[in-house]
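Archive transcription. Copying these from loose printouts into the bound notebook so they stop getting lost. Printout 1 of 2:
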Amino acid sequence: MARKKSAAKENTPAPAAKKANEPNKNADKKVKPAKQDKKRKIEEVAPEEETTEQSQEEANEEETPKPVENGKKKKVEKKAEETTAPEVSEKKEDDIIVVADFVKGTEKELTDALKKQHDVQVISIEKVSVGKYHLTLVSTKKSKKLVNSHVVRIGGSDIILSKQNTYKSGLVVTNISITVTEDILNACFKEIGSIKKMTLKTSGATKVAYVTFTKELKDDALEYNGALIEDRNIKVRFMSDEDKRVVFSSVSKDVTVETLTPYLKEIGTVDFVGLVDVDRTSNTFVVQFSEYHDVMEATEYNGADIHGRACVVTMNGEPIKKVASTKAPENKDTDKNDGKNKKHKK
């Protein structure tokens, strides 16, 4: 029956034609559902758009911080690089200096004094022997000026400063057997290069030699370090500024830098003299010569009488075993008694 009715409706166009001239009452009904359908479609689409917008916002929120974080990270890394760069360059330019005979203070007192009195920052400090330290300073105009001044007064004493330079045209040979002669050493080291001058002195229970060459040596010259000569393994290193220094201690209280310097100039050219220690009965001086072999010459004055008191001369922190009789450096301005005077007076 349902099929017949539907078929009848399909086959009967009369009602549609009959209502053709009449107002279409179902027009609104047809439109309304269309609007409703559209509205529904809009409503159905709207949540998707909101969801899309939310997801985009969430995605943006998640994605947006990443560039910011990356940017911050890049900025931090860049800042770190900018901060690190000067430190590396400073470390490369840091001056390694030697502080000689700072005998009446501690490492902390020394570093504090350099900072407070001279505005120089100490990076590291190493004690190498009694009263002698190796320092690493931050490289600044003030630290360079301080090092170039050589003598710095701290706590009533002179501190000797200089760069830790090495010179490949000369060797310092220590721990030499007491029986070794210059001829034996010359035969050993002439294989390294042409020897300009050699000086051999007794130092404590062993000997020390300064050997200078006509040309700079290669690093393989240090392969002789530890070589066995006679009954001892010798120690070999390149020369440094420290090797130009001697210490005059137990010097009379009335001797000053000004009064000692003329005597020292009779030995050789003097770079500087510093009064490094003052006690109740004597003074101690550090002297740096221009030539290494002048140091050996200066050791001959160990035990010499200067202004009524026998001095003690040390080299490289070691006492000189050989003691001169009463010979002291001669001053051309003083009377020499035809060259036989061995005791200097005021």
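Printout 2 of 2:
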Amino acid sequence: VDDELPDTTMLDSVVLPAIASEARVGLSALQRAFTEAERIIPGVTMELINEIVDS
């Protein structure tokens, strides 16, 4: 049975954690950008979401 399953050790132990780590960094930067944009231009987030929904 083990011969039929692909070895996902590298995927599970290296690739996926690296992607998750980079994703956290990217999402953190995105959160900061949205917070700063909303501070500078109140309501900009709602306008952006409305544009996305309408298109």
